[in-house]
Amino acid sequence: MTSFTILYDMVRWEEKAIANAAKKKGIDVHLIDARTLALEITSKNSGIPDHTILERCVSHYRNVHATAALESMGHRVVNDFRSAYTSSDKLFCSLALARANVPTPKTFLAFTEEAAKKSLAQLGYPAVLKPVVGSWGRLAALLKDEDFATAIIEDREYMYPMYQVYYLQEFVKRPPRDIRSFVVGDQTIAAIYRHSASDWRTNTARGGKAVPCPITEELNELSLKSARAVGGEIVGVDLMESPDGMLVHEVNNTTEFKNTVPATGIDIPGYIVDYLVSLEKR
Prior knowledge:
Layout: E1 3-8, H1 13-24, E2 28-33, E3 53-55, H2 60-72, E4 77-78, H3 81-87, H4 90-99, E5 107-110, H5 113-123, E6 127-130, E7 141-143, H6 146-156, E8 166-170, E9 177-184, E10 187-195, E11 209-212, H7 217-230, E12 234-242, E13 245-252, H8 260-264, H9 268-280
Parallel strand pairs: 1-2, 1-3, 3-4
Antiparallel strand pairs: 5-8, 6-7, 6-8, 9-10, 9-12, 10-11, 12-13
């Protein structure tokens, strides 16, 4: 029987939906909690069945470290370490997108308060400051003017060193929404607009509303190009509509889709299962 493993550290709607989709298709699924793993990395025996592993850990650090270890032990992990490492850090993701000539917002990198302010002088206000590692818009700040920027940056100077990596982006003039598309293999299978009436961040985890978005030729091309840029097989791509066309600002490694399935009617868990099964048959 064809089978695969889901590695997780929190059972969300998505993990349940993937497991249920596999069950309906007669596919055997092994569920492993990453928090129970004890891997002897100098060995090739992980104790995990020798088939494809779908990495779904919420924790960034569990995700990338478990993926690296399991790949070194000979497992096929989706997404692989390169994709997980690149897409889960906003700076590394931006660099990969830029190398692939994917249009992205103007972005600056700085390491000190002085250099951050110099970058902001070139970007202009408003601008956006984001942590390089993080999700759901946490600790992202909209810097409306120089005084506000100074206050936020001074706070960051006393935080964990990661927050002194200043990842600064232009605030793109866009409609009050952004786009999340979903790529599985070589297909853009679904897309949503994410609207928020009360927050400049449109994340559905923060209350943003999902409505269907048509998959245009431009959206499909940018989504696939972005996925390839980071080496992703199953990813979510975040885009914005600028006056000069669509811009990609992020690629998500273990993307959520509980709001997309009811909004679009697309069976994303089924697509994921079919893709994993196709890998097992190759």
